[in-house]
């Protein structure tokens, strides 16, 4: 969280900028950052980083005066590690690596969520297996990535529908191994985050989607984190990056097929598959009580499974200052399924 003194200084500068009507107008235009030092941005070639991929490819960061030095990594945990070790200035990732990063005591700040949604995770069941009642779950082999937000959501889902997790065989498994495990009848069902459920449905004949892990009080936010040095020395760049990200999300809403085509060229995934996931998730630059509640729920699970020693005090780690400064404090309607 920003120091009180620092916030007063920066807010004072913004008040000066707001004196004239022209300045008010400029708050809603792409902001030009005031320095040209490249920003090392850690993200990946994966649909979860769609706004960052688009902002780079369409030149939105450059339009905002931000030169990006892309650090392309394989997973959110690697993005978090790059930020913690100083190899990146800004990193984007899912909720679990974000929580691990802020709980590590490293000088990093959460400045926004940019996506997520209750449809992030789905349960997929192999052919010939029926899971319509609590008794159907007894003894079934359910694969999930241990310690992930999917894992925590699965436990909540089982509890909601009266299934005792102790009566289910929960098998820790990497998402990449789930299709083959189901195809060879080593597991009866999987719980995973997009795009893995879709991959299983395409690769395993007869597999079907049972449910999304929705209605559990969690929107599984995708997060943007910044190292504290950059927060304190280059706040204008952080603000410009948020606006560029928001601009990319608006492009996703207005031209979803074109967005999926551009993203597919980067990820190597067919555009129609990327479009399916884009529509399934929600996209918005925001930092609100729903994000905080979702992170708190996931942090409690991580503490329970000993991935965190204790739940971090999120109120000390979330600060909507940059959302406010970027003119996004009221937000737009979450772009779920690209509804206008």
From TrEMBL:
It is found in: Periplasm. GO terms for cellular component: periplasmic space. CDD domains: PBP2_NrtA_SsuA_CpmA_like. Signal peptide: none annotated. Its main location: periplasm. Belongs to the bacterial solute-binding protein SsuA/TauA family. This is Aliphatic sulfonate ABC transporter substrate-binding protein.
